[in-house]
């Protein structure tokens, strides 16, 4: 039985739903908006989080209110198939097609949570997996101009932290040497798979080579291998190349120029519970590692991706640090890595 088959036939009763807007200015300087989706039925409530990045899309959805036809008796699977036939952006098409997946995941994760609560079961019990403590890294850019500060200031308070860092062409040799000296870097993100977004990074084969040689044990995420020079720069390091932004399905994993030993499975990129759970099974069957990544979740979505990590890839360099670590000078008392699963007894949530 596949992982998805273990939850697909769970009964699901939806009577109504509501939307709650969340807003916070995050450390990178932009105002993050998300929408908490609350599905109600049978005296229970299921929650999910739409992590679409365009703030106007959230405002438009919240202003329209609960206009989608979701009420009825379903299973997790029949609801997913119904949802796939709806236009979840009735106020206008999103800027990037992948945002449709982000919103779908918000509804699907809420539906899974509700179905499990109505069945008085936890996701861990439903899929037959024992949750384990969750290893996490802290993701950061190094500032403009780049300095060691984003790493050393966090390490000053939390010396055991591990990092996933966004490399940019203005990293000089002194910065790289300083990062190497910390011994705290697990992953480097080249952001080479992003096109037409605010996080695009110029393809720089020389930087790829310097980084790969300086950090011989680090994962190398999302290089732009469309460039022959870039492929040549990383040819000796293909076993450390991993993918994030291009991965929305198993087919996307298979389509990459370098087949990864481990891959970033961000739930919101997959959209549906089925697509995500099938990818978990695919990686396990192939002996391919997986790790999780966040999307600046402000609400229950963060706990849900941590929950999934606890079940499917707890020991990986998961980019799902608890709230608070995004601050340059994080407050004392934040939970350390590995993070205790701390799952609610029913549904698909970690305890707040």
Summarize the structure.
The chain has 13 helices and twelve strands.
Q: Which properties best describe this structure?
A:
352 residues, TIM Barrel, alpha/beta, globular, 12 strands, Enolase-like, domain 1, 2 domains, three-stranded antiparallel β-sheet
Give the CATH topology of the largest domain: TIM Barrel
How much of the polypeptide forms β-strand, as a percent range?
15-25%
Instruction: Compute the separation of the termini in Å.
Output: 32 Å
Strand/helix succession: HEEEEHEHHHEHEHEHEHEHEHHEH
Largest sheet: 5 strands, parallel
Contiguous helical run count:
13
- What is the percent of helical residues? 25-40%
Structure, explained:
The chain folds into two domains: 122 residues, Enolase-like, N-terminal domain (Enolase-like, domain 1, 2-Layer Sandwich), CATH 3.30.390; 184 residues, TIM Barrel (Alpha-Beta Barrel), CATH 3.20.20.120. With 352 residues, the protein is of the alpha/beta class. It is globular and about 60 Å long. Helix 6 links the parallel strand 6 and strand 7. Helix 3 packs antiparallel against helix 4. The strands form four sheets. A five-stranded parallel β-sheet has the order 6-7-8-9-10, covered by helices on one side.
């Amino acid at each position: 039985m596949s992982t998805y088959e273990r939850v697909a036939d769970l009964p699901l009763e939806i009577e109504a739903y509501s939307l709650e807007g969340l807003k916070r200015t995050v450390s990178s300087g932009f105002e993050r908006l998300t929408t908490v989706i609350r599905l109600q039925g049978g005296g229970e409530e299921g929650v999910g989080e739409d992590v679409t990045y365009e703030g106007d899309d959230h405002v438009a959805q919240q202003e329209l209110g609960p206009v989608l036809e979701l009420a009825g008796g379903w299973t997790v699977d029949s609801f997913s198939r119904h949802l796939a036939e709806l236009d979840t952006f009735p106020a206008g098409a999103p800027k990037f097609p992948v945002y449709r997946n982000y919103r779908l995941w918000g509804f699907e994760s809420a539906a899974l949570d509700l179905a499990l609560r109505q069945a008085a079961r936890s996701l861990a019990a439903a899929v037959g997996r024992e949750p384990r403590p969750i290893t996490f890294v802290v993701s950061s850019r190094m500032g403009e101009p780049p300095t060691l500060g984003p790493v050393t200031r966090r390490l000053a308070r939390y010396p055991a932290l591990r990092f996933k860092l966004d490399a940019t062409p203005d990293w000089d040799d002194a910065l790289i040497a300083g990062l190497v000296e910390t011994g705290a870097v697990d992953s480097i993100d080249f952001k080479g798979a992003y096109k037409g977004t605010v996080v695009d990074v110029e393809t720089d084969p020389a930087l790829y080579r310097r980084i790969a040689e300086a950090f011989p044990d680090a994962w190398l995420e999302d290089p732009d291998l469309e460039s022959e020079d870039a492929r040549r720069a990383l040819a000796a390091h293909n076993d450390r190349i991993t993918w994030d932004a291009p991965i929305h399905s198993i087919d996307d994993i298979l389509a990459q120029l370098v087949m990864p030993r481990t891959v970033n499975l961000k739930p919101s990129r997959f959209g549906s519970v089925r697509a995500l759970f099938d990818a978990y099974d695919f990686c396990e069957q192939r002996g391919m590692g997986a790790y999780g990544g966040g999307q600046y979740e402000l609400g229950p979505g963060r706990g849900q991706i941590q929950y999934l990590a606890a079940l499917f890839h707890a020991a990986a360099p998961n980019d799902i640090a608890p709230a608070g670590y995004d601050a340059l000078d994080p407050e004392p008392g934040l939970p350390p890595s590995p993070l205790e699963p701390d799952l609610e007894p029913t549904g698909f949530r970690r305890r707040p």
